[in-house]
C-alpha cells in the first residue's frame, strides 16, 4: 500500500512551486495597481497641463502685501533677503518684470521674504532696489541686483539675495569672504544634506552588498518619492504627513515589484553584473523621460506656502529642514538597530558579507534580496520627499543630480556596508556645502567627483571596506 500524503503537504508544495492561480492573482493585482496609479497621476496633473498651454498676457500686478499662493491660474516668484549676519532683512523693495509687459513688486517682510504672483509661464527678471537696502548693507555683487528666473504656473520659483557689510566685498566669481557665521551656516547645511543623502545611499549600498549590482536607476527612486508627494500633497490636497507615508509605501512597493518582475528572473538566468548594470542605466533613462512626460520639465513644489525660517544659535534654516533632519535621523537610527539587533537584519548582513556562505547556512538569499530592494526603494522615496521639502521643489532629474553624491558616499564609506554609507554621506554632504564658501553655485557638486577619484586612487575599499585581492 502506498503512503498517503497529508493535504497540508500538498498545499505547501503548491505554494512553494507557485501555482498558476497564484501567479495569475499576483499579475492581476500588479496590473490593477498600475492602472490606478496611471489614472491618479493623469487625473491629478490634467489641470497643470491645461494651464501650461495658456498664452502670456499683458498685465501689471500691484505690490504684494501677503504671501503668494500658487494655483492652476498663477505661479509665484518668491525669495528671501538675508543680511551679512544671515538674518532676515525687512523693507527691501523687489521688482519683477516678465512676458507680456508684466510688472510686479513686493517688499520683504519681517522674515525677509517677498513674493510676487505671475499670470503666465516664462522668463522673469527679478531686481532688487539697492536704495532700499538697510544702511551699511550691500549686495555681495552689485551686478547681481537683477536676475533671471524661470516662472511656471502652479509652481514656485525662488531666489535668495545675500547682503554683505562691505561694499564690493566680492569678486566677479560671486563668492564672498569666509566668515565664522558663513562657515557654521554652511556646516549646518552640510549636515542636512548628508542626512538626506544617507537615506538613499544606505539602500544603494545594501543592494550592492547583497547582489553586487551598482544600480544607476536608484536616483530615480528619489525622484519618484518627491513627485508622488507633490501629487498627493499639492494636487490632491492631502495632509503632508499622510502624503509622505503613502509615498514611502508606494516607493517600497515599486522596489518589491522591480525585484519580482526584473531582477529575480535575470538572476535565475545568471545574467552578468555588467549586463544588469546596463539594464539599470536603461531603466534610469526610461524613468526620467516618463517623469518628464507626466510632470513636465518645470520644478514643482510639494507645499505651496513660503517656508518659515527659524534661527537657532545663529544658524537659519527652514522649519521643513529641521523636521526633515529629525525624521532622517530617527529613520537612520531605526535602520541601523534593525540591521544590528534583529534576526532578519543579521541575515541581511550575512548575505551582504558572503551570499554563498549565507545560502549554505540555510538563509533564503532570494527573500533577503527581495527585502533589500523593498527597503532601499522605500528609503530612497523618503529621501525624495524630504529633499523636495528642503530644496523647495523637485523635478524630473532631481535624483540624477544626486546620483554622483550617492555613489561618492557609498564608495567613501565602503561598498556594501550600510554604516559606511552613513558616514560617507555625512562627509560628502559637509564637504560639498563647505565648498560653497569658495566656489559659486552648483560647482560644489564637482567636489564629489574629486573625492571619488581620490578615494579610488588611495583607498579603493573605502573607510569601512576590506581590501581584497583581485586575480
TrEMBL record:
One Pfam family from the record: CarboxypepD_reg
InterPro entries per UniProt: ABC_transp_permease, BCAA_transport_permease
Keywords associated with the record: Amino-acid transport, Cell membrane, Membrane, Transmembrane, Transmembrane helix, Transport
This protein's record includes keyword Iron-sulfur: no
Location(s) in or outside the cell: Cell membrane
Transmembrane feature ranges: 25-45, 193-216, 236-257, 278-302, 322-340, 371-391, 403-431, 443-464
Coiled coil: none
Major localization listed first in the record, in broad terms: membrane
Topological relation to the membrane, as annotated: Multi-pass membrane protein
Keyword Transmembrane: yes
Superkingdom per UniProt: Bacteria
Similarity annotation: Belongs to the binding-protein-dependent transport system permease family. LivHM subfamily.
PANTHER family, per database record: AMINO ACID ABC TRANSPORTER PERMEASE PROTEIN (PTHR11795:SF445), BRANCHED-CHAIN AMINO ACID TRANSPORT SYSTEM PERMEASE PROTEIN LIVH (PTHR11795)
Protein name: Branched-chain amino acid transport system permease protein
Organism: Curtobacterium salicis
